[in-house]
Amino acid sequence: MTKSRSAAWRLPLTLTLPLALPLVTCVVLVSGATLGQEQTPASIPPIAQRTVADLHRPTVTPDRIILTWTDNPTTSQAVTWRTSTEITRGLAEIALAESGPQGQRNNARQLIAVTQPLETDLNAAHFHTVTFRDLTPAAKYAYRVGDGVNWSEWFLFTTASDQAEPLSFIYFGDAQNDVRSQWSRVIRSAWTDAPKAKFMIHAGDLINSAESDSEWGEWFDAGGWMNAMIPSIPIPGNHEQAKLEDGSRRLSHHWRPQFALPENGPEGLEETCFTLVCQNVRIVGLDSNRNHEEQAVWLDRLLSENTAEWVVCTFHHPIFSTGKDRDNAELRKLWKPVLDRHRVDLVLQGHDHTYGRTGLDSPTAEQNLATGVNTAELYSGTVYVVSVSGPKMYNLQRHPFMARQAEDTQLYQIIHVDSDKLHFEAFTATGELYDAFTLRKQPGQKNSLTDEIPDTPERLRPPVTEAAPGRSTGGLSRSR
Ligand SMILES: [Fe+2]
Q: How open is the CA angle 204-206-212, to the nearest 5 degrees?
């Protein structure tokens, strides 16, 4: 028999529950009292909504677990996780992965974490980092993190090979907004297409408010256990910069406790400007928010000594902006000559909330972008990509030297490197191939490029007329 709404609420609550109990407890107990009895939807009492602080509160159980590298990917692996401040000593255990359940547990070695406190707008937490060292190249390991009592599950990862074996990696432009609601599907689609990717590059603006713990919580929730199995290489965007009262900006206090990254860049840019080599690919992360000149000098010296076959640079603000009325002329002036001189293969960027990918030739610093390529100054050899993975969308700046562009499209990119061949694919959030090309090494010359753009129309907004100016930004503010 159906229990009427009025009957459910006639339960003598005040007699059975202490007055001090919060409403949420009452609701849970009332629901429990009627469990098993059929109810019409109208008879269900209002459900108490968890607060943002509740949703992102750290506990003794490890969360926000993420693999990154501080050192050589063939022999080391860093892992960072979060707990409540009750956990003052973090532990990690690691062993060669085994098929049976006992082996890795019995053979595991235990390491004590470096623990850092972090006060956020919502809570106080401890972030723990362990760097596993002396690992065997191209070996599958199992690890777990915790405190000796409260443990994560065992996760698997595979160290990089010390040979130039084929590898794939994933690249995301800005996630930034509605990360739980609208970005999670993008990282999950990328994972389904490349579950054995060696790493994931995030080209800045992972979140919108630099020190919002709920936004960071959404970012970690979206990646979930994938972050604990595939190393991430994030670089900071302008939205990872907290604004100070005097108008200046500094790196988010979340950044360094939660991402253990190399500290091999210029002094003062630790974990925001760095490099590492994975198999035959050198990754260079630059901090486009500050110290451009200093990083140009560092990059020039670094690439002069590079021996890796492929060089991929990633930074947030694009050399060639694809956002309408946005430009980063200083970066083009200071960094592009260095990228050109060293024939960097691929530059992966974000910031402009559109998609744009060049061919091999693009204008030099001095040229008016609108005129396209000046053959007198012709050289690039570098492919520049701007992409966006989150839902915030801008108006596109068209450039004649862009091979493929898009508006209003969330994308992820998978890059495959195999010996002297690099294959790039951009997919929409729903997994449709949107752009592709292949680079091939040519000794002593710039790369060759073969476009493999699918035969589908470019995803562009209709031209804006005078009568209908200013397309929307998806209801989101357009802050730089
Ligand atoms: Fe940005």
A: 125
What is the distance in A from the centroid of ligand 1 to the CA of 71? 27
Question: The pTM is what?
Answer: 0.87
CA of 244 to the centre of ligand 1 (A): 18
* pLDDT tens sequence across 102-136: 877 788 999 999 999 999 999 999 999 999 999 99
Q: Are 307 and 264 contained in the same domain?
A: yes
CATH number at residue 341: 3.60.21.10
Cβ-proximal residues to 73 (8 Å cutoff; 6+ apart), any chain: 159, 160, 198, 199, 231, 276, 277, 278
Query: Is-contact 116 257, C-beta < 8 A?
Result: yes
Round to whole Å and give the CA distance between 409 and 427.
Answer: 10
Instruction: Please report, for the domain that includes residue 98, its CATH number.
Output: 2.60.40.380
Residue 313 near residue 347 (C-beta atoms within 8 A): yes
CA dihedral 314, 317, 323, 325 (to 10 degrees): -160
Q: Are residues 120 and 174 in the same domain?
A: no
Based on the domain organization, do 176 and 313 belong to the same domain?
yes
Dihedrals φ, ψ of 6, to 5°?
A: -65, -35
Residue 236 Cα, ligand 1 centroid: separation in angstroms?
9
pLDDT in tens, 127-168: 999 999 999 999 999 999 999 999 999 999 999 999 999 999
Residue 148 sits in the same domain as residue 17: no
Domain interval for residue 92: 58-158
Distance CA 425, CA 402 (A): 16
**One domain for residues 268 and 353:** yes
Tokens found for residue 429: 């959030």
**CA 310 to ligand 1 center in whole angstroms:** 26
